[in-house]
Amino acid sequence: MKKWNRLLALGLSLTLLAACTPKKADPTPTPEPTPTPTATLATDEKVRVAVLKGVTGLGAAKLMEDKKDSETMEFSLLADPTEAVAGLTKGEIDIAALPTNLASTLYHKTEGGIQLLSLCAYGVLYVLENGETIRSMKDLEGKTVHAYGQGANPEFVLNYLLGQNEVDAAQVDVQWHASTDEVVALMASGEATVCMLPVPTATTVLIQNDKVRTALDLTEEWKDAEAEGVLTMSCVVAQSEFVKNNPEAVDAFLKELEASITFMADEANREEAARLAEAHGIIPKAAVAKRALPDANLCFVTGEDMVSGIQGYYGVLFAADPASIGGSIPDSGFYYLSGK
User: Fold this and answer.
1) 10-25 CB burial, b ≥16 within 10 A, e <16
2) What does pTM read for this prediction?
3) How far, in Å, CA of 271 to CA of 273, rounded?
4) What is the mean pLDDT for each group of 10 consecutive residues in the chain (340 residues)?
């Protein structure tokens, strides 16, 4: 692990107010606006951040834009979570966005080698139908559902929600595919009429065929089932050694990530957010990004709220299949609590 300085340079941005001062009267002092700190990382080497294409990396698009010429931070855009896992394991990546179940698995695999910094997106799974027959989870019984994500969050979430709605998973013919592109092609050709996909791939299907509709929002189904925890599918982790050696840098990064996610999630910034998503390769087309953003459920959750939100979800995954989160629910060492 390279040595890092623990210095955090805070840039203070001041807004100057122009006003006319009366000549014959003492002016009433006008308090200056409170400066807004802009967290800047100051280290000997660039902080290496990996984000994934799709919703997992979507919230970071504004930060990637702001830091594209930075001497303190560099981003790599990855198509597959396994690339991020390899980079973290080899010490080639300091911070990475990952699916939440994979973060837990990697924590166990590395014997505490990573820590969870924040949650960055809630559930993004949707059941789509070219038709009008599916209105509830019960309506999936007897149906063929084309999907991607076997052995990961999508499979565990679907099976859990089927069980919560008293549907035998064996009565739903789920056809798992090797890529989301396969599912999109089947829906486009009409060979498939029902699919389960994450945003933004689900968005692409909806754009391609106006006869396809969103039948079920699995995040809402999770709430309706009164499931434990919060359905949270994306998070940000860091190497534990990096966190230990650079707590100020980590806190600075989190402040900037929060600002980026807030910008990307704000409806008022929809056009620019979509442009940035395309410009940085996170979502191929701005038109898809623009339509996907409202359904992306971007969030920024840290500290104790992060712990309480994700532990219940991990409990559900553990009950479904302990291997889905690496064999056990992570202990307290997994969670990074800023300032502690």
Assistant:
1) eeeeeeeeeeeeeeee
2) 0.84
3) 6
4) 35 32 37 38 74 96 95 94 95 96 96 97 97 97 96 90 94 96 95 96 95 96 88 96 95 96 98 98 96 96 94 91 94 84
